[in-house]
Amino acid sequence: MLEIVKGILRGERRSLAKAISVIDNDEPDSQTIIREIFDKTGNARTVGFTGSGGAGKSSLIGKLVPRFHDKGYKVAILAVDPTSPVTGGAILGDRVRMQDSIDDERVFMRSIASRGAVGGISKSLRNIIRILDAAGYNLILVESVGAGQLEVEISKIVNLTVVVFMPNTGDNLQAIKAGLTEIGDIYIVNKGDLEGSNTLFNSILDLIGNCDKKTPVLKVSAKTGKGTKELALTIDGILKTERSGYKEKQRKMLESELKSMTLDILEQRALRRLNSDEKYYFFVTELLKKRIDPYQAAEALALSILDGSEGRS
Amino acid sequence: MLEIVKGILRGERRSLAKAISVIDNDEPDSQTIIREIFDKTGNARTVGFTGSGGAGKSSLIGKLVPRFHDKGYKVAILAVDPTSPVTGGAILGDRVRMQDSIDDERVFMRSIASRGAVGGISKSLRNIIRILDAAGYNLILVESVGAGQLEVEISKIVNLTVVVFMPNTGDNLQAIKAGLTEIGDIYIVNKGDLEGSNTLFNSILDLIGNCDKKTPVLKVSAKTGKGTKELALTIDGILKTERSGYKEKQRKMLESELKSMTLDILEQRALRRLNSDEKYYFFVTELLKKRIDPYQAAEALALSILDGSEGRS
Predict the structure, then answer these.
(1) How far apart are the first and last CA of chain A?
(2) C-alpha to C-alpha distance for A109 and A106, rounded to whole angstroms
(3) For chain B, where do the domains classified as CATH 3.40.50.300 start and end?
(4) Among A39, A84, A248, A277, which would you mutate to test the B interface (most chain B Cβ atoms within 10 Å of its Cβ)?
(5) In what order do the strands lie in the sheet with A217-219?
(6) What dotted CATH number matches A41-241?
(7) CA–CA distance from A217 to each of A237, A240, B85, B270 (Å)?
(8) H helices within chain B, ranges in order?
(9) What is the pLDDT of residue B98?
(10) Distances from the Cα of B95 to the Cα of B85, B92, B110, B142, angstroms
(11) Alpha carbon distance B305, B94 (integer Å)
(12) Which of A127, B211, B234, B269 is a good FRET partner for B303, with 20 to 30 A between their CA atoms?
């Protein structure tokens, strides 16, 4: 067994930090690590927190952590930073606020980059959760910013998604319409004392009312802590009642993970073959000369990669 | 030859509209249409316009169109609407403003949906451009909203990208940092008379100065038309001088298109095989029982799809 794997299973922070970097950078050791810890996983529950920047997600998480400790959870926090699809550089990166608000040695905290590629984050996030799971963390909070494809992907990986809104920000209603109401299992109006919070609260109720789900909508104040006890209770309650349907959901998640990993491997092999296949360069020249069209060329190349096996199976 | 193809080549609007729908919905006729028009393409040049909502892209395009007509271009406009990744419903959709500002029968205008899937828009956009190209439009303007992965994808498809900023909007500098300065070939400060336009202008110069590119930065007013003549001249100039490097760029674009189409076909076939493969369901059960890990399972499935051809090629 790898030294790092022993460290993970003992819950050593240095091993955890290193293993997460290995996964996040998709280094070759990722496979070995996951292979060796996989049968020690399955105890952790995961909660996603999303909402626009400045909605107060980090402070809210800071207030929730002690309450989860009281309920006996061992908590880890993963913050997913959106990065520019071109530069790969983090826009936010500044996690100091959260570090400050959670002054508790028991909590493991880590930022991971999303690197623009949505598929990439799904794979590494699943495996990083496994590492924390194997290390004994049984409640993993995943924070991300926004309402895009990334948040939809994360909502498919975690057991439960909390969407955090703040009153009086112009983009709120647009964000609600843009799909956030379909990924959330719980909706939060943070800064619930501010003017406008009732309007926002009612807009959310109206919108999710149409979806015919019994989704909790709560007003909290991450600043004063008001409402956070109820929120922690609600999350804990859902995680616990969910255990009945958990097996089926787990199977669905594994099915979709297995599909996307298989397609990833196929894509890597296909690209390797294409780049070394003179047929590929020949077809590009034929395309430039308009002697073949893109559909014909792609069809022929795909068949050549599958190596005629299409007809046999 | 299909009736619709004859219509496209004659430049009939009804055929064009129908063909674009066929492509946009990825109907089976797409292949036949592209196959039959492919050797009539290659004359159109394409310009992307991006920037946040409200930056005045539509009005700007409205002011540019008559100037492009004066230079002998036949202009078509494609507006890419971002849609929610979950609902598929368009957030914007309201193209009335642009329709109003371009009261010219010669211009062909059309909205297409992005459907959240970035790869999807690339494929349909390339083929819709081909249809307009075959119909005789030799300048195609592609408008999109934002600074995300979608705009990066579009910038790879068009010959030249114009990024439109507006002074005094909070997100401007963040958008600049988020990668817009790397996709633009021309930067526009719209509403150049407003206070704050100089600050914005200088910030853009500073940021792209670091990139060591000779990228034009222009102040215009889409409202009064001020500066739009110079902008049209700049675009025309770049499109014309670019012709020297055009062949090489065209080859690169075709290479990447061919790769992604080949991978698409492989993925479709692979998914079809997976769904009907009992090995796949067996592996999911084994994963749930932790008797195999995700890497092993995916590796085995990928190999089974490639049907052992891996060893022979």
Answers:
(1) 39
(2) 10
(3) 40-241
(4) A84
(5) A108-113, A75-81, A139-144, A45-50, A160-165, A186-189, A217-219
(6) 3.40.50.300
(7) 15, 19, 23, 41
(8) 3-9, 13-24, 29-37, 57-70, 96-101, 118-134, 149-157, 172-175, 181-183, 197-209, 228-241, 243-275, 278-288, 294-305
(9) 56
(10) 21, 8, 9, 13
(11) 45
(12) A127
Give the mean pLDDT of chain A.
83
Nearest residue on chain A to B266, judged by CA atoms?
Answer: A302
Which amino acid, residue A189?
V
Topology, domain B40-241: Rossmann fold (3.40.50)
A205 touches B at CB < 8 Å? no
- A289 vs B: CB within 8 A: no
| Chain B neighbors of A312, CB-CB under 8 A | 307
As a whole-number percent, the residues of chain B with pLDDT over 70 amount to 80
Helix (H) or strand (E) holding A252: helix A243-275
Say whether residue A173 is in contact with chain B using an 8 A CB cutoff: no
Residue A47 has pLDDT above 90, yes or no: yes
Contact B189, B211 (CB under 8 A): no
**Residue B306 to residue A174, Cβ atoms within 8 A:** no
**Residues A80-103 pLDDT 10s:** 876 544 433 333 434 444 555 566
Contacts of B306 in chain A (CB under 8 A): 266, 269, 305-307, 309
- Residue with structure tokens 């990928």? B302
The b/e string for A177-192 (b: 16+ C-beta within 10 A; e otherwise) is bbbbbbbbbbbbbbbb
Chain A positions touching B148 (Cβ under 8 A) are 85, 148
Model confidence band, residue B44 (pLDDT cutoffs 50, 70, 90) = very high
Residue A42 sits at the chain B interface (C-beta within 8 Å)? yes
Give me the residues of A, 85-114, that contact B with CB < 8 A. 85-87, 91
Any idea what the Cα angle at residue A247 is, between residues A245 and A252, rounded to 5°? 100
Note whether B233 contacts A: Cβ–Cβ < 8 A. no
Interface ipTM above 0.85 = no
Chains A–B, number of C-beta pairs less than 8 Å apart: 175
Task: Name the more confident of B230 and A111.
Answer: B230
Q: Is the pTM of this model over 0.80?
A: no
Residues of chain A with CATH 3.40.50.300: 41-241
